Predict the 3D structure of the following.
Amino acid sequence: MLTPGTFADSAALYAAVQRMLGQGVASGHHSCHMAVAATVGLDGGPKARIIVIRQFLSESRRIEFHTDVRSPKVTELRRDPRIALNFYDAESRSQMRLAARATINAGNDRARESWQLVPAVNRALFMSPFQPSGELTEGVVLDDMPIPDQTDESGFAHFAAVVCEFDEVDVLWLRAEGHLRSRLAWSPDGWRLFRLCP
Ligand SMILES: Cc1cc2nc3c(=O)[nH]c(=O)nc-3n(C[C@H](O)[C@H](O)[C@H](O)COP(=O)(O)O)c2cc1C
């Protein structure tokens, strides 16, 4: 739970961030289950979309999400790995903004490790013959993707586990008594806290 004291102490603030991200991974009902992920588009403009966070490794400051390797965001991240992940927790009315760098894992051991945990219903998404965000030409009909057997590997070729390592967390808490905001910046000495004007 956030308290005003949390915003003056780096360890307490990171503990709160850990709790929210941990709950976001664990529960599809938690508001931190999804984030807005913003990248630098190939045209230099901002591109933002919703993603589901699948894993959070607190010690190494890493968040993983899954995507189709053919999607434009992968091309964007290969060109510029900077990514912003924004969360909003409706219950506490708090915003978390993470600045990270992404590594694309596709067709490698790391991707394979994550793929093992992808349920069949999600595996179906990677079996589509169409490129995500690609235009569907006239007459193309999208058939319902049949849910494959859990051992079906045919979607693996399109699967990417995107691992985002963050080094900055900006937390804003909206309260009737006065809003609070602090930023955590990572260095080899650990997290350093900066209090900010909300
Ligand atoms: C609730 C929700 C959850 C989503 N989760 C993901 C996800 O985990 N990974 C993903 O690649 N796209 C996800 N999407 C779809 C993206 O928002 C986006 O439309 C798609 O990935 C294409 O993005 P791009 O063209 O920017 O690459 C989700 C969309 C919604 C509405």
